[in-house]
Amino acid sequence: MTGRRAADRLGASAIADAAIALADAEGVEAVSMRRVGAALGVSGMALYRHVGDRDDLVRRMVARIAVELPHVPAGEVGWRETLEHLATTEWTAFERHRWLVDVAVSPSRLVDATSAPETETVLARLVAAGCPPDRAGDVFLGTAALVIGIARVTLGPPSGTAPGTGASRPVEYAADHPGGGAPVEETLTARFRGEPFDAGRGRRLLEVALGSYLDGVAHSLHPRDR
Asked: Which residue numbers delimit the DNA-binding region (predicted)?
């Protein structure tokens, strides 16, 4: 009876919160109806009163995070500041929830995490700046894709998994040793390869890449006199 009363008190938000906590600790692969139910003190079957299946649960996890993110700044804000804020907010979400990039790897998934009114605001600000309506969506999507790509490269696994595996170790190619000689230690390539792929480097990459990307957008909106 106790389990039934607990199940009756459950809601989709509480279930999503428990699933997010599990994913933050162990990765999204650890999320199952059984594990989430156990964390809430009920059977996995009890969750089906509130969520359709695991895919539905993952979507609710993304939506739960999205509603807490101020994607679009209010007030009289220009298109560039809007996209900078959007990118920074999404990056912060990826840093807090390392698994999120695995379920948002499709740019459309990440854009869907932005509400319809916020999406309308972003597109309207771009159009007001001179961006054609049919291109404004591409600019918006490009910003999201930029964040996703850098997050995929630089952000590590969730806190409950082993860090520093795989991507940070460069592959040795025969071409790295021309003529069979030893590589020169102090080179730009050695320095580049020696830097860790971590959140700090990711933030620097995002700043550089986003700035260049938005400069290109600005140039297309206000082309220089030729």
From this structure: 32-51
